Amino acid sequence: MMYVNADPFYSDDSPVAAIQAMDFILPPELEATMPPEARGLTRDAVRLMVSYRSNDHIVHTRFQHIGDFLQAGDVVIINTSATMRAALQARRVDGTPLVVHLSTRLPADLWVVEIRQYEGKTTRPFFHIKPGETLYLQNDATITLHTPHDQHYRNSDSNSQQSPRLWIATLKLPATTTLEDYLNNYGSPIRYSYVRDEWPIAYYQTTYANEVGSSEMPSAGRAFTPTLLTSLIARGIQIVPLLLHTGVASLESHELPYEEFYRVPATTAGLINVARHEGRRLIAVGTTVVRALETVTTADGITHPGEGWTRTIVTPERGIRSINALLTGFHEPQATHLAMLETLANRHHLQLTYQAALQQGYLWHEFGDLHLILP
After folding, report:
1. InterPro entries attached here (predicted)?
2. Which fold has domain 28-83+198-374?
């Protein structure tokens, strides 16, 4: 049974302390443990919940029928970022085996990274790193951890017994090795405990991905197939691209989203502005698309082209300017993405849809089912 927790989502000194988490119990059997293809389904055969926020009407269907709920003139905005093999085996100078998750590539060839330790067949965060420590990777590569990513840790007592989850670091590769080659040879897709087995990188890519840079798959678009996209275009539905490279998730602790690289092309911004002016539906495929568009959409509802690193956080207090519909997966209890969904819809609508998802046995996470929220 879902319940709402009225406790503040963040501490009082958070810049978005007013956010409150929608909390609920997610049964383990509703966690998608493998790709749908391994369950005997095609990509587009996952389940789809369609909900209308104006009247709380809910429809249960399969993703391959999404075209029945779209119409000519709709604009569907996709994120074309491709997933890196971002998990790298590492060891400390004392031989302790660890895993490095590459998250976000920053200017000056710096990285935001997460350090994890093995726990059976999976990993959990490792909190005992010191600034300046160098970890040793395969094939004579190294990664040096310079400073905590979170300003709070940089300003805190240096004698603290626990280090932060995220670090700013330098990755040093052999002189003749490119990052792409190194990750192809020694990296693997990031996976968490609910995915029990390793799967090839192809299972972590959308069919339209064309620029590698995400540490984790922008999974809301995973169910689209070339055939399905072609059929939607034939119906007069516009498919327009942008780019946002996703960083690592925080399943163990619900932290604020941090900076991610985005690029919104001029053609995409122009098509969105025309559609908005004409009153057409603007459907973001995933919260990554919303974050990128909200970064470049001004308070007067004009979307501009642009690129850079966004720190935009979409909350009910801030509001949403860029889109009026969203295709997304089902998010974990207290996840930060739920605040974005509540900004588009409202708490009551989300409660109804998540109650239905739990009761109907929808599957969570990147290999799970999907939710289309329409006006």
Report:
1. QueA (IPR003699), QueA_dom1 (IPR042118), QueA_dom2 (IPR042119), QueA_sf (IPR036100)
2. QueA-like (3.40.1780)
